[in-house]
Amino acid sequence: MKIRCNGIEVNYEISGSGPCVVLAHSLGSDLSIWEAQKSALAARHTVVRYDLRGHGGTQHAPGMPPGAYDFDLLAADVVDLLDMLKIQRASFVGISLGGMIGQALALAAPNRLDKLVLADTAGRYPPEVQASWPERIRQIEAGGLEPLIGPTLERWFTAPYRAAHPEVLERIGGIIRATSLAGYTGCCHAIAGLDFLDRLATVSLPTLVLVGDQDPGTPPAMARELATAIPGSRLEIIAGAAHLSNIEQSEEFNRLLLAFLG
């Protein structure tokens, strides 16, 4: 389904009934990466999955030139989606880029959130990583997304999982390939400005931080920083998972998620 939000047509799906949970995906993916979580949550929750700006069925705004997004814009997309769906409050589950948007929401609109789950994400990158994003954007604009697919899948899944599940890699690779270049690079600009860590002490929402023990992009050390920065939050490290822990270890991810959401 599509709905007009914050100047764009947002693609979303709603399943189940009960307290609302919003699921936000990673850079270069779409709402389908949450299929296992949707199935687990829908018996007790209204599950809203949506495609981020410029991803999946939510395309870059018509007539808008390619350029930078920021986290204020990406968080406003979520608030407007909740408004249009007449949902006053929701728990928010974000993985990778989705978790960064979750932090922006917790800082900008905490009155709209019940609980917060930040999976395989960061509140700030080390200076050398932060400095690499402009070059990454330049390379993408020059060469497109195809050269990124192989390295991205290597970061997102462990070697044993990649060997055992070629069909998953083919499907996820296709999603990356189908992402609009303007949407991908627009979100890259937002990530390049990521710097929430020092502000997270003001977050008072119940918060769960999840991370795969083999996540190379946002490793457990970054998850510990988040959990330390947010008062009262809990950290859980998921064994045998890289960056998309919600897919690679979906049963354990779901167990921790369901226990936290209640």
What does this entry look like structurally?
The chain is 44% helix and 18% strand. The protein has 262 residues and is of the alpha/beta class. α3 (97-108) links the parallel β5 (90-95) and β6 (113-119). The longest helix is centred in the N-terminal third of the chain and has 14 residues, at 71-84. The model has no long low-confidence stretch (mean pLDDT 96).
Spell out the blueprint of helices and strands.
Blueprint: E1 2-5, E2 8-16, E3 20-24, H1 35-41, E4 46-50, H2 71-84, E5 90-95, H3 97-108, E6 113-119, H4 127-130, H5 133-143, H6 146-156, H7 159-164, H8 166-178, H9 181-192, E7 207-212, H10 220-229, E8 234-238, H11 245-248, H12 250-261
Helix pairs in contact: 1-12, 2-3, 5-9, 6-8
Biggest β-sheet: count, sense, barrel? 8 strands, mixed
Shape designation:
globular
**Beta-strand content estimate:** 15-25%
- Annotation field: number of helices: 12
CATH arch. level architecture: 3-Layer(aba) Sandwich
**What is the element string, with H for helices and E for strands?**
EEEHEHEHEHHHHHHEHEHH
Provide the gyration radius in Å: 17 Å
> What count of domains describes the coordinates?
1
User: What helical percentage do the residues reach?
Assistant: 40-55%
Q: Please identify which CATH superfamily we are dealing with.
A: Alpha/Beta hydrolase fold, catalytic domain
Distance between the termini: 28 Å
Strand tally, please?
8
Secondary structure class reads: alpha/beta
| Average pLDDT metric | 96
Strand order in the sheet with the most strands: 1-2-4-3-5-6-7-8
Q: Which spans of ≥5 residues are poorly predicted at pLDDT below 50? A: none
CATH topology: Rossmann fold
Q: For this structure, what is the CATH class?
A: Alpha Beta
